[in-house]
Every structure is written in C-alpha cells, then in structure tokens.
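Materials and Methods. Structural model of Molybdate ABC transporter substrate-binding protein. The 262-residue sequence of Molybdate ABC transporter substrate-binding protein from Staphylococcus gallinarum was retrieved and submitted for structure prediction as follows.
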Amino acid sequence: MNKYCKPLLLMIITVSVIVAGCSNSTAKNSGDTKDKENEEQTLQVSAAASLTDVTKDLEQAFEKQHKGVDVSFNYGGSGALRQQIEKGAPADVLMSANTKDVDALTKQKKAHHTYNYAKNKLILIGGDKEKYHQVSDLQQGDKLALGEVKSVPAGKYAEQYLKDQGLYHKVQGHIVYAKDVRQVLNYVDKGNAQLGYVYKTDLYQNQKNGNDKVKEIDDAQLKKPIIYKAATTSNKKMAKEWVDFLKTNKAKSILKKYKFEA
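The predicted structure was written out as tokens:
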C-alpha cells in the first residue's frame, strides 16, 4: 500500500464511525420522542368509588374528542387516593368525592387546575323488606354500614350528620365500616347490615343494574352540600384537557344522567 492510500483509508474509517454515531444518536432521539408521545397519550385518573359507573361514559366521550388517548382509572376512597398520590403513586388527575383531599394536595403543590365538577346527596338505605323509617329504629344486633371515616368522604359526611342530629352515640355500637360506598351497598344488599349511608347516585346505579333489594329510607339533610372536586396531579397536557372536559356541556349532561348535580 503506497503512502497515499493509508491516510485515505484512515479518513474513510473515521467518517464511517462519525456517520454511524450520528445515525445511532438520531435513532435514540427518535425513540425517546416516540416514548414521550406514547406517554402523553395515556391518562391515569384516580377517581372516587362513587364515580365507577359515570366515568365509563365520560371516558368514551373524552376519547371520541381525543383520538389515540388511553384513559385508565384507579378507584377507591378519596382519602386513600390522596394518600397514594402523596406517596408518589402515578396519577394524572384526581376526581375526589369531596373538596378536602384536593385542597390538601393543592397546599402541597401536588395538585393544580382545580374544579368543582359535581354535587351529590347522602341517603340512608335499607333492605327492601326492612321496616325501618330512620336510623334510630335500629334494634339490638342490627348493623349500620358507613364508609371508613378517614378515607371515604361519604363515611365522614354520615358521621358528621349523625353527630349534628344527636344520634351518633346512640348508634355508635351498631356501626360497621366499609372501604368505600360500594361495599356499604353490598353489606346492605347481602343483609350483613340493616342500614347504611351511601350517595344517592350509588343507589340509582344499583337499581339501574336491576338490583331492587335495596331502597332509600331517608334523605340526610346536611348543613353543607357535598361537592366533588377534581385537579390535575401531573404536568401532562392531557390531564388539564380532562379537567377542562369536565367543564363542558357534554360532561355535565353525562353527570346529570347518573343523577349528579352538575
């Protein structure tokens, strides 16, 4: 090999390495961009258990307006959901059954773009064959089902109502606690509790699903309305778009369909 070939060969090898490096870098950047886009197209909503049915319709309407978006839900008591978010659990939106838990996250700067999206009512329910007219009719051995006070807003509302009415100490020995309002319904439905406090929307959906074993006995007249509040809990653009969607007439009509006030 003559003296001119060696430098030329070295130059060719050097250029090839640089081009390959650029190609790999471009591919990597392209992959990173694609991963980010895919992440932006997913939305994780933490929602109160009382929203289990209505959110399915909200999801369908939202996804029609936002093609390619995949919305998934994590249901539970609002307080439990807040605690999950505080501990770093993945969530883009919190749809609470109260204002307290969203406000707590807002103070910690873990929630933004808050919106009061619905109202609900608390009612006393019982089995269809029960003869009770009010919670004070409970007999020895009877059970009154409430959501866990620390994590389920409906349970907290019920406890406060009973205290305001001067009934709490009388019925305290009858109380059994449930992880959410759906479990309260189940307790009454199965006869594990004679009475229970749930949201009006829960009973409506239960009856809509063909279950007529549970009936409304009394309407709890609370001193303050039950307000449902939502907020973004991540920086995703899609999270804010979900909260904005809750403000639309379409979302409000769906909430009203399920007997929420919106």
